[in-house]
Amino acid sequence: MFTPVETTIGAFLLHQATSILLHNNGTILGASEYMRKVVSRPTVGVATFFAGMIASFPLLRVVLPELLTKYPPSPSTSGQALVTVAMGLLVGWGTKVSISGESTDEKKAY
Amino acid sequence: MLCGLSRLHGRSALAVAIFFPVALITHHFVHPSLMTTVCTGDLPCYTAIYPTQATTISLVALTATTIAAGQLIPRIVARLSKSTKNEGDKSDDTSLARLATELFAGLEFGLGLHITQMSNPAKVAAFLSFPRLEVWDPSMMLVLAFGILPSLFENLSKGFGNPPRFSKKYELGNKTLADTDWKLILGAATFGIGWGMSGTCPGPAVLRIVAQPIWGLLWMGGFWLGGMFLADEPEAVMCG
Fold first, then answer.
1. Which of residues 7-26 of A touch B (CB under 8 A)?
2. Which tens digit of pLDDT belongs to each residue from A87-96?
3. CB A83 within 8 Å of CB A74
4. How far apart are CA B217 and CA B229, in angstroms?
5. Burial bucket for residue B15 (CB in 10 Å: 0-12, 13-18, 19+)
6. CA–CA gap between residue B19 and residue B178 (Å, rounded)
7. A–B: how many Cβ contacts below 8 A?
8. Which of B2, B15, B198 shows the shortest C-beta gap to A18?
9. Is B163 an 8 Å CB contact of chain A?
10. What is the ipTM metric for this complex?
11. What's the confidence (pLDDT) of residue B86?
12. Share of chain B above pLDDT 90, in %
């Protein structure tokens, strides 16, 4: 159902997240980029970002457990497992190839 | 999407203009009933439901505190880093402030995704059920409005002429609308299909890995595999 209050407030948090990263650190908040970096070129910065994201779970559990995400069941058959992999594949390829060739200075490792 | 549109980045706008309709069509095709778990009861899904007063108070308090901390703590850290430097020490005193920023950006991002429920595949799917209005949840429109518009105004007023607070320059990527090629179009469309089918994009995926590690292993495996099919380099933003 339409949740105007929660979504508006949450959206402002999303705005803040992108804003401080952009105007403090000068970087784009790229979730797919960070996900790849954590495997290929892990940096303290990326790890810290993910630590922040993960911290949202215990924080909400204490303050607002009713707003924690309720997920559909985890895949339990091999068919579902394959579909999940395929979904990741599509998103993984799509996000990689659509920005291929973009160059930014990668000298900072924090 | 969040970062590109708020900079009026034509290339981002094009990607969004491609993946949204593709996702919508995909969702209609793959789930023709358009039933989702977020549409409950007999009322049409676009009917608003409101949190309790207790929830609202906690939510506003949590949000205000987090935003204030995200704004203040990195600056305090920067000031402390500067003041504890020795005479003549020319080393970089902003790296701790940058880390503090990463931490709060991650926290705000995670909280924002949970609270808007963009981390919930069913919520996303319900938005993509447009134009069947009785099963359509318009909430994501508010994400576009209140996630992007404040950033847009901020960017327009601040501009990118001066360097960011804790870094020498902005790293915004160098491609423009003029660089549009089949990779952008096909990539955006492919993303749209994956997103339309699963209601999951990278940011929410990170959260779901924590909650459901098995799902995470499978989805991430696919994600990394998919990224290896084109050995090109750095990334920007697809989904915030």
1. 7-26
2. 999 999 988 8
3. no
4. 19
5. buried
6. 19
7. 453
8. B2
9. yes
10. 0.91
11. 66
12. 58
